[in-house]
Citrate synthase (Fictibacillus marinisediminis), 368 residues
Amino acid sequence: MMEKGLKGVVAAQTSISHVDGLNGKLLYRGLDIGEVTKRYSFEETAYFLWHGKFPNEDELNDLKNELKRNRKLSSSIKEIIDHLPKNMDLMSVIRTAISSEGSEEYGWKPTIAQAIRLTALVPSIIAYRTRSMEGKPFVSPREDLDHVENYLYIINGTTPLKAHAEALETYMILTLEHGMNASTFSARVTASTESDLVSAATSAIGTMKGPLHGGAPSGVIALLDEVAEAGNPERVIREKLVRGEKLMGFGHRVYKTLDPRAAALKERLLNMTGKDQWLDLALETERTAVALLHEFKPGRSLYTNVEFYAAAIMKAIQMDDELFTPTFTASRMVGWTAHVLEQSEDNTIFRPESVYIGPAHTKEDVKN
């Protein structure tokens, strides 16, 4: 019997990433994600996904300079954002602003220069809208700050703590790419019609907006708030499990063992012990929760997922829940564009079949 949602159907061949849910592995172009986060920056990893190799010093400097040159929002994009309804959610703002980028220069085939442009724009769009809604002036990007550190700077208007910038950079590296997920599939389907990169990215953003894909970790933040207020992780978590409540941030629909992104993020945060109270609280809560889950649900393999530590990072750097999915989008733009570039190299339009399950009318039925 056919699975709904194309589950188990191979839609494309890719050399960009490999998600091995059974063994808890995530590979970027064959390299384990844990090794990537230990050794490389956001810019180096983005270059790796786009080009298939890591940059030398000159190539890295060129990429950083290109990202910096493309951070500036045009007056037309600012005007569009300014005229959007005040009650429009931030993901819809990003989708609309990116869509407005679709000038004639974005034709078939897509280019890495276009990918860099879109990647550079998203953080500026997020910051411009966020600060505008808060009644604050837009903060101009700083030339001396790299991509992630600058993102935090233009959001908050202050130079971020090193520990916060490093934690967010690790998270954003881990979410650059994750196989043929719903938003990546959307991007590749749009690209397969030989549409432009902006259209493909807009499709992906619209898909990411859905709560089943890019939903905010508000449940994890609520758990951490509750633990912080009680001052006793074991009591809070034990009571929840006794009541049969689900622990947010534990378990994953793909990974049947430890989420490798959570493992990599935890390893980085362990190096920051004592530098931020929320990161310390998250580590303590995770240790307690995993032990109690093994006690209450033996054999279920419920481990921490990346959302748990993402929530801890967002809490530490004082980002509102509304910024979680947009920040996810800012990083995933690299993966989407890498897939569109790959699609364009050996393109075939996607045209899946459907199974008709409606009534079987005859000609006589139609006449009557």
Q: What stands out?
A: Strands lie at 17-20, 25-28, 31-32. The CA atoms of residues 11 and 213 lie 19 Å apart.
